[in-house]
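FORM 12-B: Structure-to-Sequence Request
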């Protein structure tokens, strides 16, 4: 990202490797809507920033105090890599805000991302995982953000056995929220989306009903379907209007959980009656996915045990490091048949 709305290739110095850190050569990467959102100025102006935060790769160098890894290890790197000595980590259970708001998200936040010949991982022993036997690199790549973020929506919503759940937006994060809700024991799962391939996979992951905004107000449809609304709502897409709809479709004593990035220009507002004039006991929660090695280890264990197939998210693949630009452009255009593109960086081998 040269500047807002202007992307391309850049020559940059190789990152330095501190005593607790590692350098990784990416072997597979995946562009994300957060990257494209960043490139259009959604998080403010940035200059000469290397994008990317989803990668599986090979360790090329480790610091002298790293004990769990060595050069040549094949590793999975979560998008969120906290500073585990920071006060914010000691005061929270989410590990997303170590030095301030979302500052555990080092890639794109305070340093270059993974769309490079080498990228840096801070505190490697706590922020990387070896690729386990029985898990493909492609499946593992989907854990580092899409699965972690979608499942965090389920965690924020505190979904339990038999809950009726709505998931708004069934892109890759929303699809993972559907799958996570099913694994958590939800009863009825209503997915809101229109793209045929996303609808198909949502049903495969456990959605029992599909609602389309093309058929009218989604809150009104869901209230009619359920006879009053859902117990839990996960917002995984949409805009400021969607926020109010989520509150409307959620019953009293329910929970609205948001993992959607709203734009810096938007204002979130809703009529007071949707919140029972403040008396409805509807919890509104939102957050960025937790980070660190232990979380990714647990997500990889679900894949290894056959509980979930994350490769269903992958619709497009490219081969060659230089094809990152093509995959990024595809993600930016939001092609109708797109869910998630990946790039094999084979020319770096």
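FORM 12-B RESPONSE
SEQUENCE OUT:
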């Amino acid at each position: 990202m040269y500047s807002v709305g202007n992307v391309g290739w850049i020559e940059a110095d190789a990152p330095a490797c501190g005593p607790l850190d590692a350098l990784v050569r990416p072997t597979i990467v995946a562009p994300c809507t957060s990257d494209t959102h960043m490139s259009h100025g959604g998080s403010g102006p940035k200059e000469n920033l290397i994008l990317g935060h989803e990668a599986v790769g090979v360790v090329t160098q480790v610091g002298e105090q790293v004990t769990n890894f060595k050069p040549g290890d094949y590793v999975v790197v979560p998008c969120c890599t906290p500073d585990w000595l920071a006060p914010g980590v000691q005061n929270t259970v989410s590990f997303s805000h170590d030095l301030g708001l979302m500052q555990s998200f080092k890639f794109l936040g305070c340093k270059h991302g993974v769309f490079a010949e080498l990228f840096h991982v801070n505190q490697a022993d706590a922020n990387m995982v070896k690729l386990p036997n029985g898990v493909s690199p492609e499946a593992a790549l989907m854990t580092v953000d899409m699965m972690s973020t979608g499942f965090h929506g389920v965690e924020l919503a505190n979904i339990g056995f038999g809950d009726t759940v709505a998931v708004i937006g069934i892109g890759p994060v929303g699809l993972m929220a559907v799958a996570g809700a099913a694994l958590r024991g939800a009863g009825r799962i209503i997915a809101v989306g229109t793209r045929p391939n996303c609808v198909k996979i949502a049903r495969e992951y456990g959605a029992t009903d599909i609602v389309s905004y093309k058929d009218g107000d989604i809150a009104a449809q869901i209230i009619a379907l359920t006879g009053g609304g859902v117990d839990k709502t996960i917002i995984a897409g949409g805009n400021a209007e969607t926020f109010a709809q989520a509150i409307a479709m959620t019953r009293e004593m329910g929970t609205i959980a948001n993992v959607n990035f709203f734009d810096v220009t938007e204002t979130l507002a809703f009529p007071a009656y949707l919140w029972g004039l403040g008396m409805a006991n509807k919890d509104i929660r939102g957050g960025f996915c937790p980070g660190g090695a232990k979380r990714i280890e647990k997500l990889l264990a679900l894949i290894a045990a056959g509980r979930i197939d994350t490769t269903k998210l992958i619709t497009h693949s490219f081969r060659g490091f230089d094809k990152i630009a093509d995959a990024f452009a595809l993600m930016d255009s939001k092609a109708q048949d797109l869910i998630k593109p990946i790039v094999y960086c084979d020319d770096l081998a």
